[in-house]
Design brief:
Layout: H1 2-15, H2 23-32, H3 35-43, H4 45-80, E1 93-95, E2 101-107, H5 112-128, E3 132-138, H6 147-158, H7 162-174, H8 176-182, H9 184-193, H10 198-204, H11 208-223, E4 231-234, E5 237-240, H12 245-257
Parallel strand pairs: 2-3
Antiparallel strand pairs: 1-3, 2-4, 4-5
Length: 258
């Protein structure tokens, strides 16, 4: 009701130019007799909806502008003082190990936005080639039941062969709908397709090292303020969400110029 008061008050203030009641007086009048608002809405409901929609659009625009400003300030601060995710020796690295730009990705195999992020990273790799390397880390969300099992399969296959783990990663994201429908049967199928040793895989899936690695990834993501997926850290600068290629390009180009 208070939102209606404010919107109606804004519209009324535009039409009154003489002897207008103050905002406080108008608010008190409406609180005493809410039918004032209802009568006005009934008299011209289309106009009321138009005003509400316009106000909502303006509010959304201002919120987006504020968010962009805050993100820009944060990025500038991180360029000056980069975030420092840990990169262990045994991690799977997509790309050249000595690439000048490192993208650490915190992702969830079942998340549809992470699937979009996967496509964007493919575009980044195609554009920059050996100038970038990607370290894939895990942030399985509670409401995606197959996210953690998929993460475990990825790390278990990585214990055999990093190239096979990368192929597994690509195939799972490209077949995300099958992951949701077929669950672990799909993960086993993909593991076989990439040439994993299935007997060793079954054993390694239970390895506590994998559990610890996933937990460490999740804690690190939270430390950097990444609570949703996907999240990225590009040479110490965070990018949150399934952002378009241009957002990555801006940060990468700035790093390469340095």
């Amino acid at each position: 009701m208070r939102k209606i008061y404010k919107l109606f008050l804004s519209a009324s203030a535009l039409s009154l130019t003489f002897c207008a009641p103050s905002a406080k007086q108008f608010k008190e009048a409406v609180e005493k007799d809410p039918s004032i608002v209802f009568v006005a809405i009934e008299k011209d409901p289309e106009k009321f909806i138009e005003i509400v929609n316009k106000a909502a659009q303006e509010a959304q625009k201002k919120q987006q502008e504020k968010m962009f400003d805050e993100e820009k300030k944060q990025r500038d601060a991180e360029f000056a003082n980069p975030l420092k995710p840990e990169i262990q020796e045994e991690r799977v690295i997509f790309g050249k190990k000595d690439a000048p730009v490192t993208i650490v990705e915190y992702s969830d195999f079942e998340c549809p936005y992470c699937s979009r992020g996967y496509q964007t990273i493919k575009q980044v790799k195609a554009e920059y080639g050996d100038k970038v390397r990607i370290i894939f880390k895990h942030l399985p969300l509670d409401f995606h039941p197959m996210a953690e099992p998929a993460a475990r399969y990825f790390e278990a296959i990585a214990m055999q062969d990093h190239a096979k783990a990368e192929k597994f990663h690509d195939k799972v994201f490209e077949g995300q709908s099958s992951l949701k429908a077929e669950k672990e049967a799909f993960l086993k199928k993909v593991a076989k397709d990439v040439g994993a040793n299935m007997a060793k895989l079954e054993k390694d899936l239970k390895d506590e090292k994998i559990s610890k690695k996933i937990q460490t990834d999740m804690e690190e993501a939270q430390k950097f303020g990444i609570r949703g997926t996907p999240g990225f850290i590009v040479n110490g600068v965070s990018l949150k969400g399934a952002l378009p290629f241009n957002e990555f390009k801006e940060v990468i180009d700035k790093h390469l110029k340095k």
